[in-house]
Amino acid sequence: MALMSEVPRRQAPTGTAVLEVRGAEKAFGATRALLGASLELRDGECLALLGPNGAGKTTLLRALTGRVRLDRGAVRMFGRELPAEERRAALGIVPQEIAVYPLLSARENLDAFGRLHGVAPDRLRARIDWALAWTGLAERAREPVEKFSGGMKRRLNIACGVLHEPRVVLLDEPTVGVDPQSRERIYEMLDALREGGASLLLTTHHLEEAERRCDRIVILDHGHEVAEGTLAELIERTVGGGRDVVVHLDRDAARPLDGFERGADARTWRARVRDVAGELPGLLGRVAASQARVEDLEIRRQGLHEVFLHLTGRELRE
């Protein structure tokens, strides 16, 4: 992979699958963690794998990396089934836990992980220099990692997982516990990986990240996928398109407002519209006819948060 400044503009994802899971099943005693889960990561895309706690995401990722042997199902990379050892060597794996050596420097960590990944000796120096520039750590390359901030450790953690230039990268919560600036920098790094030809499978509990950054989304629950598609497709299939118009009045409405549903109190009213420009004037006219005045107005679109709760429920999972 080239340095960020040398990377060509990323092409749109193709329909070619680089990683496929079909009918994955896994039980641990009486606990059935996976019940026929399937997904497909396409060439050049960023695919979000979402689900509440206990949905089976961790088990599925461990199966992809060969740490868990499936009871049933198939995993294919680049159109063929690979043994776990060969599949693991072809993947870039970035765990949620920081998996670097705190007493070593950034350069020493990269050197160690490069050797573990089998990077050729004549390529290793160039790959380390690339990684330090890519992560923005070149000026801190010789400092012990224990002195780094959380965001710096996260960036180094990612770099250690991709030194061998994998075409498929699995990222488990890559931005957990970092500040907004570090999160943005990490996603710039991930964009650069995609520009260099990598395909990304990303788990995250930050739904707004999946909404903004991922081409498609798979939602897993109770061991199998409950939905898959682009954000627009998921919205249309579940909560429906359109917008919510929420008006906050200066007084309690004397009677129900036609076309609205009452909110938390008689001052808050909500309506669902498909065409904001066409339908909003009529709604506001009905409010005016009630002799109440609009103190505030919100127009809210349905998003991944609403889709996720619609599909997985609001019950707390711990």
Mean pLDDT: 91
Number of strands: 14
Strand content: 25-35%
Report the biggest beta sheet as strand number plus sense, adding barrel if it closes: 6 strands, mixed
Distance between the termini: 40 Å
Could you give the order of the helices and strands? EEEHEEHEHHHEHEHEEHEEEHEH
Low-confidence stretches: 1-11
Specify the overall morphology: elongated
List the helices and strands and how they pair.
Elements: E1 17-28, E2 31-42, E3 46-50, H1 57-64, E4 72-77, E5 80-81, H2 84-90, E6 91-94, H3 106-116, H4 121-135, H5 150-162, E7 168-172, H6 180-195, E8 199-203, H7 207-213, E9 216-221, E10 224-229, H8 231-237, E11 243-249, E12 261-262, E13 268-273, H9 276-289, E14 294-301, H10 304-312
Parallel strand pairs: 3-8, 3-9, 6-7, 7-8
Antiparallel strand pairs: 1-2, 1-4, 4-5, 9-10, 11-13, 11-14, 12-13
Could you explain how this protein is built, in words?
- The structure is a single chain.
- With about 325 residues, this protein is α/β, with parallel strands linked by helices.
- The protein has ten helices and 14 strands.
- The protein has helices at about 55-65, 85-90, 105-115, 120-135, 150-160, 180-195, 205-215, 230-235, 275-290, 305-310, and strands spanning about 15-30, 30-40, 45-50, 70-75, 80, 90-95, 170, 200-205, 215-220, 225-230, 245-250, 260, 270-275, 295-300.
- The strands form three sheets. A six-stranded mixed sheet has the order 6-7-8-3-9-10. Strands 2-1-4-5 form a four-stranded antiparallel sheet, with helices on one face.
- Helix 3 runs parallel beside helix 5 (about 150-160), helix 4 (about 120-135) runs antiparallel to helix 5 and helix 5 (about 150-160) runs parallel beside helix 6.
- The two termini are about 40 Å apart.
